[in-house]
Amino acid sequence: MRFFPRIFAADARVTPFDSDAARFDARRMGMWIFLVVLALLFVSTIFGYLFVRVENASTWLDGNPPPPPTILLYSTVALLLSSWTMHLALRAAERGERAQGKWMLATLGLALFFLTLQAFAWVQLIQENLTISTGLYAWMFYVFTGLHAVHVIGGLIPLLLTTARARRCEYGPNDFGGVLCTAMYWHFLDGAWIVLYLTLLLGSR
Amino acid sequence: MTTSSHTGHAQSTDNYLTFTRGIKSWMFTLDHKRIGVMYLVSVLASFFVGGLFALIVRTKLLTPGEVSWIDADQYNQAFTLHGAIMVFLVIIPSIPGALGNFVLPIMLGAKDVAFPRLNLFSYYLWVTGAFLSVYALLAGGFDTGWTFYTPYSTTTETAGVIPVVMGVFVLGFSSIFTGLNFVVTIHKLRPPGMTWFRMPLLLWALYATALIQVLATPVLGITLLLLIIERAFGIGIFDPGMGGDPVLFQHFFWFYSHPAVYIMILPGMGIISEIIAVHSHRQIFGYKYVAFSSIAIAIFSFLVWGHHMFTSGQSELMNVVFSFITFSVAIPSAIKVFNWLATLYKGAIVLNTAMLYGLAFMFLFTIGGLTGLPLGTLNVDIHLHDTYFVVAHFHYVMMGSALIAMVGGIHHWWPKMFGVMFSEFWGRIGCTLVFVGFNVTFFTQFMLGSQGMPRRYYMYQPEFQTYHVISTMGAYCMALGFFVTAAYLLHSLFFGKKAPANPWGGRSLEWQCTSPPPHDNFSTTPSVGNPYDFSDVRWNEAEQGYEIDPNAVPSKDTH
Q: What is the ipTM of this complex?
């Protein structure tokens, strides 16, 4: 309700739960299910890659395609760090500490840094004449990184909203659901990226 | 619209329809009942459009040769639109979105679904998907068939393919969020006393459906995304020329779309469980078997997708495995049918419109289900694959079962939704026309298919014409039936008799609140009991409805 104060009627029932605790519980469960949905999205993409890889086992690396750029290693570190700052932000929010704003801001910064590095990786590969239409190897690289980047970009919206609130130190022991859900999503993106990155590394040899 | 003040159970005069007024109060409503009604209107509008395309297809097929008013390309677009609209815009969202949204929280005894804003968001995703489909139509149409099979969908020149695929992608997320909402609602919003085994069977069915929606739809999402990328950038994961594989598309597509068949039928089965029990005033037979068979169907649904691909060149071993598992689906389905039959036995059956649709469902679903068995048999399927036999089979299941259940459910809950009674006389006539028309249309197609008439053909051999003409006449009869239905339902909105709280003698919670329900569903916390124990339900002549006799000796909770 806080973010969309005007469009809903004043007497609209934003939640059917009688207690904040019950609502919190439901939000966490909903978030878990949502993460399962996203996991299936990534798993089926990897399955698609494995399917064509097996069918093209002998021709997969024809033409010596460039391996994933080293820059991805740095972006991986950035994303891992952002997961850590997110965790610190969550702990601060749980306790209602002032540090929540600082750590959320750090997470936001690292997220943007990660996206910048990913973009550089794309630029580098395009300069090496590997575009998405080059072949299935390039398909794998761009679809994996692209799909993940889309989810990071999507995650910036809740990240921005929760950061704004955390800057005002609005989260506390009884109300940190927003940070929790953002954190769950963020750790999931971190894990998904590790799996995708490893698949990319293995797929390039 | 009527106000409901004298229905005996509730003292409040508010009802959700008039709780707040104005177009904005509907557009931005968070009330699950209003969102359900908006879904209902949207889905029925799409049903009308999809039905028109069906009539265009059937009318063309009156003659075997070319006709002047529609050429082969337009015909391809017409059946594609019919299929895509009916599957993605009508049947998949129909029961969960419209009726599920309306009755699920009330049946459960909750004020709303767990995430009301997400619920509204789902609805607007549906609207976005619908607009994208309309845009696709205006942008040049699409003629891929509703399955979007590659390589056709990546190479056909119709310009509407990308918009419609994006539309279906968005609709998929609408479906996922509805499913997510329902799962959390059923887990977290059951009031005290509402145990899992006191939930009406519709809730079990919607729960099983929601699990499939959540677990299968993401796979469709990624498939469609890859299809869009492939078509837009010319990369080849589905293109054998570049090392890709069109069969991969089929695996992906059916990994979603076979479970999606159960997204369509399971809620229908749930509605039938309600209708059969309430209108025969008899404790549902084998409650737990019906409940668990819903879950069993949901599990099986993920293991049978390969039976759509017996002729696509997958390995023979896989064919045999998929064929075997496909037969297993017959078991939970039959458990349901036999339990409904046993419920009817010695019941006080009232043959009103809702019950007629319920009985029609049982008849049509049995035919639809049993004709699935020959299609699951490998050698028979080679002969029947892509013929009208398949068309007839899935219409018996999708339309004869899922949609008939939807229409039955609309009649069952119409008094609850709008607080008015419709004309039972015209209701029975409408149902009869639909039932007869449906069988004339599609039973004929079993004959056509077994004699070799392929599906989706614009022109055909003249010896098939008699069957095609009969089938088309049936389609017109069905259309007439639906027009009659639409007419008396609309009539009832303005001139219908005021509905009592409990017109049919139902025992589940939605019949304990007024018709239409108040904004908060219940003015007092309802008492939760066995939803199928009709022993204390009495007819009240003054209210022209049923009420629960507080003095009745409570029977033992039999499950």
A: 0.92
